[in-house]
Amino acid sequence: MPLITTEFLQYGAESAYVGMLRLNRPELHNAFGDLMIAELIQALDALAAMPNLRVLLLESTGKNFSAGADLNWMRAMAQKDYQQNLTDAGALALLMQKLNSFPLPVIALVQGAAFGGAVGLVACCDMAIATPKASFCLSEVKIGLIPAVISPYVVRAIGERASRRYFTTAERFDAKTALQLGLISEVAESEGQADLRAKAQPLIDAIIANSPQAVVAAKALVAYVADAPIEPDTIAETSRRIAAIRVSSEGQEGLTAFLDKRTPAWQQPTSAGQTEE
Description:
48% helix
């Protein structure tokens, strides 16, 4: 299926159930500024509205995943006043929020460098796979800044202790360290884009095999309970959620299929060799 191409991105339905969001500015190492941020927000909204997608891949063209903020964008921000900088920061914050709360599972495929705000993009994804030589850096303090807008997502991904270190030292760390910290989920066998895709395929297959409604609900459940105290309101809400999905159409189909020892409808092949909703 043809992807939509904009100035800095390619996005759309790559196959029946797999969406693609690709940073496409390799000549500048996929560095982003205000225009790319606006395009990413629009693309995420469009992808979220595509009815049949079940999983989204976030990747980039070229040698590096993303060098973070574009130098020209940073120069422009340096000339702006506080209110203008606040508006710019708000746009980046909206991007991170939309990626983090995207209804479907998002898998980042990371090659080369992922610096600054790009670490935030990776942290907002549900899963991430990196090549063995991928490297990461929260480099903001080197130029007198802080990783403020991305911090809620990065701290959740790697923890407070590691954040205290890497936010303040701006050390560059490799894929092995990123795996240990929890920023990425797996490391590919080699450096090629094909190897990233091969490593991601079992995750894609696993997601597609599951109930589409339940997958969306499960991701939303994690977001709800992650910071919720275990108290009566939380217990009541989780009880409400399981009751609601048990009586939903897919919940009924899944339970019936399990009890009847048959394949649920969303896994049954069609004449086109795909699966039905």
